[in-house]
Amino acid sequence: MLAIKNFCYKKHSDIIEKFFLLAEDGRVPPASSKGHLDGWGVGWYEKSFAKLYKSGKSVVEEKEKFFSILNKIKKTKVLLIHFRKSAWKNTNSPENSHPFKYKNILFAHNGTIYDYIKLVNQIKTKDKNLLDSEVFFQIIINKVGNTLEEKFKKAVETIKKECKYSSLTCIFSDGKKIYGYRDFTKFKRYYTLYRLKLNDTFLICSEPIIKNQPWQVLEKDQLFIY
Fold first, then answer.
1. Structural domain of residue 75, as residue ranges?
2. What is the number of domains present in the chain?
3. Quick one: pLDDT band at residue 136, thresholds 50, 70, 90?
4. Are 87 and 115 contacting, i.e. CB atoms less than 8 angstroms apart?
5. Helices H / strands E in the chain, number of each
6. C-alpha–C-alpha distance, residues 202 and 43, integer Å
7. How far apart, in whole angstroms, are the C-alpha atoms of residue 104 and residue 28?
8. Three-state DSSP state, 210
9. CA 24, CA 160: separation in Å to the nearest integer?
10. What pLDDT shows up at residue 96?
11. pLDDT value, residue 182
12. For a Cys staple, 106 with which of 89, 99, 181, 200, CB 3.0–4.6 Å?
């Protein structure tokens, strides 16, 4: 997962290149196969409106398409990218790829909520085939709160109380701010998020992708907002 504030393709193409390498060589949970090749997605904002492109195919196989989309975006206030490694067999599709979008909110998650089906009756949707990450997102949306931060915290509280999960680590945005949250019950070295201020750019990424920079890891249960 990667979020960039004040993205400019010309200026940040090297960062994107380094992040792209994680699709094949990024960290995976212990005993898992290599690669995050089960779909991919790009979310961004045009004139404050959230936009989305998603694929159920391997981003390595669609490398040219991936970079062409970013090149066409050129500049955006907030960019979110996700390379999916699925915990659910035979679910590779654009619909199940991240980020997810609702109105102006973009959301991407790294982790598995094993018994997420318990939460489905708490969301307003006609689609009963949603997987855990999208149910997580829908729980956030359906919570009552004055701010996105308040709704998110209530959603996390609900999931922690009612479900078993590996991680609730996620990044999301309302087009103005980037939110990064880290929580896990296992695989501490895998479910990570790192943040970095780089001149007028701010990054949150699953791994430090630029060497010799003062990346700071988010602590467990930490919600960071920029």
1. 2-225
2. 1
3. very high
4. no
5. 5, 12
6. 16
7. 30
8. coil
9. 31
10. 96
11. 98
12. 99
CB atoms within 10 A of CB 123: 17
The predicted model scores a pTM of 0.96
Q: What is the CATH number of the domain that holds 147?
A: 3.60.20.10
**C-alpha span between 5 and 160 (Å, rounded):** 29
Could you tell me the two tokens for 78?
A: 């907030």
Query: Both tokens of residue 168?
Result: 């609730």
- Closest by CA to 184, choosing from 168, 172, 196, 198, is 168
The yes-or-no verdict on residue 186 having pLDDT over 90 is yes
Bond before 214 cis per omega within 30 degrees = no
Assess whether the previous peptide bond of 94 is cis (omega < 30° from 0). no
pLDDT tens digits, 137-166: 999 999 999 999 999 999 999 999 999 999
Dist CA 167 CA 148 (whole Å): 20
